[in-house]
Amino acid sequence: MDAILNDIFPASRIGYPVIFARFVGAILLGGIIGFEREAKNRPAGLKTHIMVALAAAVFAIISVESIHTAGMDSDNFKPDPLRVVEAVTAGVAFLAAGTIVLSRGEVQGITTGASLWLAGAIGLCLGFGHWVIGFAAVVAGLAILFLVGFMEDRLDLNGSMPVDADGLPKGKKPGKE
């Protein structure tokens, strides 16, 4: 029975209370960005942003923990936690691209895609234990979403780019800048 419990609860370099605190932080910070998108009725809202931030935190934490797993710390094997950052970045970019659509001649969802990417970065911050950077990213992200959104409303900009049927901005011809 001890072997099973040791397998379920292996020694943790970070410590389980800290891991759970990082999960909660990623959930809350990802949720803050997601709430703004949800309030604006965008395609990826509260749940999606929370899941992206939490998943990124899990990837970051497991990459740190795996470095300290028995057999992974030999001279013959050099784990690279930055590969996790690359993988999360690529995975979230794929997910974010799915929120970008062409509807009625306009490109929509780019800001939501970018906010998903930010949620992934925030999750990585919390997963690696960089709380201050994560909080600063949330503050900066919200400032951008609210302040730029306010300016767009004030200046009567709709934030989308009209395009022709071929996907080029209206009035642009292929091969011409």
Can you put this structure into words, describing what you see?
- By secondary structure, this protein is mainly alpha-helical.
- It is 63% helix and 5% strand.
- A 3-stranded antiparallel sheet has the order 1-2-3, with no helix packed on it.
- Helix 2 runs parallel beside helix 6, helix 3 runs antiparallel to helix 4 and helix 4 packs antiparallel against helix 5.
- The chain is elongated and about 65 Å long.
- The mean pLDDT is 82.
Summarize the structure.
The protein has 177 residues and is mainly alpha-helical. It contains 6 helices and 3 strands; from the N terminus they run ααααββααβ.
SSE topology sketch:
Elements lengths: L1 H7 L7 H24 L6 H22 L14 H16 L3 E3 L2 E3 L1 H18 L3 H24 L6 E2 L15
Helix pairs in contact: 2-3, 2-5, 2-6, 3-4, 3-5, 4-5, 5-6
